[in-house]
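New here. Your pick:
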Amino acid sequence: TSIYEGTTQLQTVAALPHVTTGTYSQMLEEFEAQDVRPEYEALKARAKAMDVKYNEAVEFVKAANNNEFTDLCSRHLYEMAANCVMSQLLLRDATKSPELFDKSVKVYLNLAEAEVAKHYNFVKSLSVESLESYKQA
């Protein structure tokens, strides 16, 4: 969620090292290795597909090896990471307590998929060469 007065940007800056060093990717891998209830296997596969997009976007940005490009993409990577982690946490919680989290995981996963796709498509549409256009805008 956004917090006004610039705090969200500070959170993004604080989270960026965990994005680029693989901390969130490793966390997602650990979540993916956990068992879920049989009725959540399809949701788990959808969450895994989001994690793949997140990791691909991170590698795309890292490969550019450009700090300005990383800065431009950082909020999008951070948002993707947050959606992926929250999806995995809800899957874990729904597996333990379906009576509490069944509806939440199903609803949230739909939202998260759309958000991850949006940020993924934005990041993958950029290039270091496009930075000048963003500086002028």
In short: The chain has a mean pLDDT of 89.
